Amino acid sequence: MKLLNLFITGLLIFTLAACGGGDKPSSESKAPAKSMVKKEEPKAEAKAEADPMKDIGVGPIKEAITFGELDEALAAKGEELYKAKCTACHKPDKKYIGPAPKDIYQRRNPAWVMNMILNPDGMIKEDPTAKKLLQEFNGTPMSNQSLTEEEARSIVEYFRTL
Ligand code: HEC
Fold first, then answer.
1. Which of 78, 98, 103, 113 has the fewest CB atoms within 10 Å, i.e. the most exposed one?
2. pLDDT score at 52
3. Closest residue CA from atom 14 of ligand 1
4. What is the rounded distance in angstroms from the CA atom of residue 126 to the CA atom of residue 134?
């Protein structure tokens, strides 16, 4: 009997200890839950890091372009070219087969725009922004119009006037 009593007491102590021990981790487990909420902050930082205005894309233009004063003669040349080569798919201020170039420099660096005009195939393959755009436009790719850098630059100037 003594042995059985000892056994039961031992079992009781063990059970109580296990319960007490069980309580602690559950109250501790609330703490990690709180710190998981805090972990969302770096996500916002990552978003700010991917600044589309600094993205120049991939293609022959390797450096960001900073605009000086508007070159009206160049913009006029660009407008002519745009009407001849681009309006089949683009309207200046409305979404059509492709996006509208109005206010494009509020979301893109001019160098990115040039690379999109000069190297649309490479952009669609390698540039994350162009890839997303292709999806948005249901997989219709922007076609290469075989423009020279100068011609592309004139259209980029014309887009400033929209
Ligand atoms: C065959 C139709 C077609 C023609 C022609 C075309 N584009 Fe596009 N363009 C698109 C489509 C579709 C997209 C969006 C999907 C993609 O990028 O593939 C696009 C995207 C663009 C973008 C990116 C716009 C943005 O909001 O980021 C620019 C810039 C652009 N085109 C300029 C031009 C210029 C300049 C010309 C004329 C030299 C031209 N495109 C001719 C279909 C065309």
1. 103
2. 73
3. 98
4. 12
